[in-house]
Automatic annotation (TrEMBL):
Single biological process term from Gene Ontology: positive regulation of receptor signaling pathway via JAK-STAT
Similarity annotation: Belongs to the somatotropin/prolactin family.
Keywords: Hormone, Secreted
Organism: Piprites chloris
Compartmental location: Secreted
Protein name: PRL protein
InterPro entries named among the record's database cross-references: 4_helix_cytokine-like_core (IPR009079), Somatotropin/Prolactin (IPR001400), Somatotropin_CS (IPR018116)
Length: 143
C-alpha cells in the first residue's frame, strides 16, 4: 500500500492516546494521500470497456466522497481551531504533506484487488479515528 510508510497507531487503544491535533492531522493526511491514487484508479477502470457503467459510476462516487470527507474534516478542523479545542498548527499541513505520498510506480503496479484492499484498510482507519475524535470533542455521546 502506498500509505504503508505513514506512521499510524496499531489498534484503537494506541489511537486513543494520540492528542486531538495529531489525530486530526493524521486523518487529513490519509484522506489527502488517496486523492491522486483514486484519480489514477478511475482513469484505469475507464479504460476497461468491459466493465459495466455502474462500476465506473461507483468508482467516481468513491473519489467524490473522499474529497467531500476531506473538505468536511477541514471545516471541522477550522471550527475546532476557532473554538480553541486545537491549536492553529494544522494550517496547510495536510495538503503539503499528503502530496509527498503521491502515487508511486509501486502503487501503479498494484492489482485492482490490492488497491481496493489498501483503500478499505485506510478507510477503516479514518472511520475509527473520526469516531475517537468525535468522542473526545463531544463526550456526551456516550462513547
Amino acid at each position: 500500500c502506498h500509505t504503508s510508510g505513514m506512521l499510524t497507531p496499531n489498534g484503537k487503544e494506541y489511537a486513543q492516546k494520540i492528542p486531538r491535533e495529531e489525530l486530526t492531522h493524521l486523518i487529513l493526511k490519509l484522506l489527502q494521500a488517496w486523492k491522486e491514487p483514486l484519480s489514477h484508479f478511475n482513469q484505469h477502470i475507464e479504460n476497461h470497456q468491459e466493465l459495466p457503467d455502474d462500476s465506473l459510476s461507483k468508482a467516481k462516487q468513491i473519489s467524490n466522497m473522499v474529497h467531500e470527507l476531506k473538505t468536511g474534516v477541514e471545516k471541522v478542523t477550522e471550527k475546532m481551531q476557532s473554538m480553541g479545542i486545537i491549536s492553529n498548527s494544522l494550517n496547510g499541513m495536510a495538503s503539503s504533506e499528503g502530496t509527498s505520498l503521491s502515487i508511486s510506480n509501486e502503487a501503479n503496479m498494484m492489482s485492482d484487488s490490492d488497491f481496493i484492499h489498501c483503500f478499505r484498510r485506510d478507510s477503516n482507519k479514518v472511520q475509527s479515528y473520526l469516531k475517537i475524535l468525535k468522542c473526545r470533542i463531544m463526550p456526551e455521546n456516550s462513547c
